[in-house]
Amino acid sequence: MFDQLKAQPADKILALMQAFREDPRDDKIDLGVGVYRNAEGVTPIMRAIKAAERRWWEEETTKAYTGLAGDPAFSEAMIGLVLDDAVSRDQVAAVATPGGTGAVRQAFELSRMANPRARVFVSDPTWPNHLSILKHLGIETVTYRYFDSATGTVDFGGMMDDLEQVAPGDLVLMHGCCHNPTGANLNIRQGHEVMELLNRKGATPMIDIAYQGFGDGLNADAALTRLIAGGCPETLIAASCSKNFGIYRERTGLLMAVARDRGLRGMAQDNLAYLNRQNYSFPPDHGARLVSIVLQDEDLRADWEAELEDVRTGMLALREQLAGELRRLSGSDRYGFIAEHRGMFSRLGLGPDLVERLRKDHGIYMVGDSRINIAGLNRDTVPKLAKAIIEAGG
Q1: Can you give the pTM of this predicted structure?
Q2: S-S: 16 plus which of 32, 33, 119, 263, CB 3.0-4.6 Å?
């Protein structure tokens, strides 16, 4: 059997991480890995999560399974965090999943069950795992223009032109905030136009929201998701707790299906539970339990929100510092978009040869398309990066 298997393509980011580890230079900089790090290069455990873990260690009495959909308190807490009052609760089906990636996978599977001929429209570029999962599932993928590398902004005209090709039953994948890998987001006016187009065409939006709280704040980052969910007949939403709660290894996510009415919500809930059963049976609970405790406790939630705000504003400060350094060294504002982007990532618009020179000559590691993780920087390394970019010809 095994001799019939084919070698799979190497993951470029994992290969980049390995090359970074093997680089002996002391002043090397890792801007490739997509994990939040503080100024000391550490992915910290948030204070509220630590407190919740201590509480749950004292209170937990069993390791028995939760339900197929996970703990209802987790779903309720996350629906509130992401959607607030944008839709009625009796319209929302939800299941816990192993991370946001699990939610994405289940959403694609649900779409295929509902309409085996449905196409999924994805932004160009998008998170590479979106494309990998769709290819593995054999779902037809269509890209729509999204990012203008020359200006560092959303190519909204191109996006809307391409989305005119969607058909009834197609799925249109969008990023809720902090677009990965570009950092460029739709504004609310643009979101309205997309929503009107999807409704006119009969397509279903799917929103991947993995960085709520990392951009402009918890509510501002959810505004596009709430707009779409409240204005479209049906919406799929894949939410991740890895970043904003700092629980990457706990693999904590939620898939929400917003239906037109209570009856269709029940049908969606049954099918989501069925998919959980087929793929991994009962979802993991530890991370979900911690999130529930934090969101349901007034003091812990306040502390979590305060720490998350420090994370967000810290990344914004690094963005402004980097844009300012590049402006000073280049004598132009061609990198000003870095300060306007949101979240952990920005795509700098550098060619692959320049990216390779930065790695080889300066020990600066970034993905080949020039996506950088802002959280891989600190105040001391920003000037080095800016200087290296200009010296390399950027």
Answers
A1: 0.96
A2: 32
